[in-house]
Each structure stands twice: as structure tokens, then as C-alpha cells.
Amino acid sequence: MDRTATTPQVLRRTNLTAVLGVMRESAALTGTDLIEATGLTRATVIAVCDDLIRRGWVRELNAPKGPGPQKGRPARYFEFNESAGCVLGLDVGMATTTVLVADLKGRILARSSERFSKNASADARRGTISRAADTALAAAGLGPSAVLAAGIGVATAVDRHGNVVQGRPLSASFDLGLQTEVWQQHGWPVLLENDAKLAALAERWCGVGTGVDDLAAMLAGERIATGLIESGRLLHGSNGGAGEVGSLELVDGVGSHDGIAKLARVWGTELLASGAETRIRELVGPGTTRVSARFVFEAAAGGDAAAQQILERIARRMARVISLLATLLNPELVVIGGAVAASAAMLLPTIAAELPRLTGTPPRVAVSPLGAAIVATGAVRLALDYVEQNALGLTPAG
User: Fold this and answer.
1) What is the extent of the structural domain holding 294?
2) Number of folded domains in the chain?
3) Residue segments in the chain with a per-residue pLDDT below the cut of 50
């Protein structure tokens, strides 16, 4: 594919972007490699590389020594400078914030998490987020000047312009001035996005959905939320509502937005209260009536029939939710993600068996390998996309 342009006024910028894009995706390259990848002339490639070296985005390597004497001028080797700065990826939840620091090729350098104080004010929540970022940067051995962009995921609707949509569930809890107040002194570009949409970005970038252009990523721990990618493009809808799966309380056999972990906990607690014989009681221990989702899954894995019936109910319910996505949006793949993903693998056989009965376009269903870091990982991808699109207007840190 020809990555160059012919319009004179954009030619230089387009050529710089084309060469930088190829180098970002590769190891060390020669001028000849770049000519083949971009279709540019040798003189243009060398001029562009020299420009990128001056800007700090590219470094020149010593040519490898081959056996015997070298004939002619040795080839020049160039490499993308992934240490020219870093990006932050944040998952800001109701109880906890998690921060990832990544280099410019997306390699995770450090991680930090902090819990919010109970009933914390907006100012206190901003302070916790800032401390978590400072801790992660310090662990990576970097300072604030190294940050070229920060991506943030929040558990409420965000429009395509990065603004929290007012009047939605939890919008007041996350409309904290994250883009304008937290790191105002640093001047970082701060990008806000819905957490489920970032989960979709993460899956397509480095999860089970790598290379899939039509997918849905479903965060299904406490509450079901979905991010959609169609033809490789993240969908937002007119007001950030794409992927909200409609009013699940109106769907027969579903009835609410409750997710896998919440249902396992509630139905497991109800099972204990009923006096039924189940290994869940042994796992919970004496004097406790509240069941965690972990105990339900553990009991089911050990062959407990009552716990297995709970998981069967959850799986059939999830199949109905997924069938809505399949019928309306026809994704190739639906990924169940978040902290519940590892346990959710036990639900897949029932979901796969149910879907053909519920929809004429059943998707493949998988669980995410990214665990609890899925949203923060998507936030890293969001920040990297910003840096890649605006590299020539940014100043590398070193």
C-alpha cells in the first residue's frame, strides 16, 4: 500500500508520518527497507530519517559488522526511539484507580493502584488519581516531563469528543475535571473514554481479538457494559451510548444489567439462605451468610451440583445478552473481559450451545486474557493512538 501523498503542501508531513509509522511497527531498518515499505525515493527516505533523528523520534544504529571486508558505503540502520517519552493508561473505577506506564511501543514499564477513600470528595478522588500516577512514574524511573499523553477509562458514558455525558448512571461520580484539573501544571493531553470501549480497544490491540475488525468486548463483573468495534472503528453513537445493549430489564430471561460476579454472589447467598446442601457453605465458613462469586465458581469446579446450576443460569442469561449484540450488530467475536474473565471460561460451553437457538448470527465467544488490567491497557492504546497521530506536533522527552 502506498503510504505517501502527492499534494505538495502536505507532502513533507505525510512522508515523515509514513516513515515513522513503518519504523514504529518494526525493528531496525535500513534505508532500502524503508524505500520498499513506503515507496519513497532513497533521497527522501534519508532526508526524512535525518529529520526524525533531529526531532528525537528515531535513532541511528551502528551497522552490523559482516565477515570479510565491506565494499562501498555501509548501509545506515534506523530504529524507532520507543524511549522518546511514555504514555499513561488509567482505569478510574468507583473504588480503585489503576495506572499503567508504557513506552512508545506499548511495553508496560510500571503499574500502580490506589483505593479511593469511602465517600471521598471530587478533590480527594483527583488527589488519589494523581498519587497513583506519580507512584507508577517513579516505579518506571520517569518524571512528569516524559509523559506525552494520558488515556483514562471511566465507568459511565463518554461522547466521541471525550466528554462525560450528563444524566447517565454514575456520570456525576466521574465528571471530576480529569482532563483539565488533575495534571494542569504538566499540560499533558488527557483523553477520556468509556471503560468498556477501552476494553474493546485493548482486545483488538493485544488480546484474544487481535486482528478482528468486528468485535464486542463485554465487561460483565458487577454490571454489563459493552464496547463495539465495527470494521476496525470504535463506535460511540450520537451521544456515547453505542454498546449499552439497550434496556436489559425489558429482555425476557435477563431483567437487569447485573453482571456475572454480582449474580453469582446474589444467587449463591440465596442458596445458602435456602438451607440447600452445597459445598459453598463449607467454603464460606461458619457464621457467614454472604457468598463471594469466587466461592460459587470454586464449588462448581469441584463438582457441586447446586453451584453448577447457578453457573448454568448465569450462562443462559449471558447468552441472551450476547444474542442481542449478534442480532443487531453481527460481531464476529464477543469477548468477556475484566476481573471475572478467568472464571467466565466455565460459562462458554453453555453460551455456545444456547446462541444458535437465540440468533441466526451467533458470534464466537471467548474470555479475555488481559484480566483486571483490560481497561487500563485500552487506555494505553488510546494514548498511543494520540501520540502516533500527533507525533510531529509533540516534543519527545529525550
Assistant:
1) 209-369
2) 3
3) 1
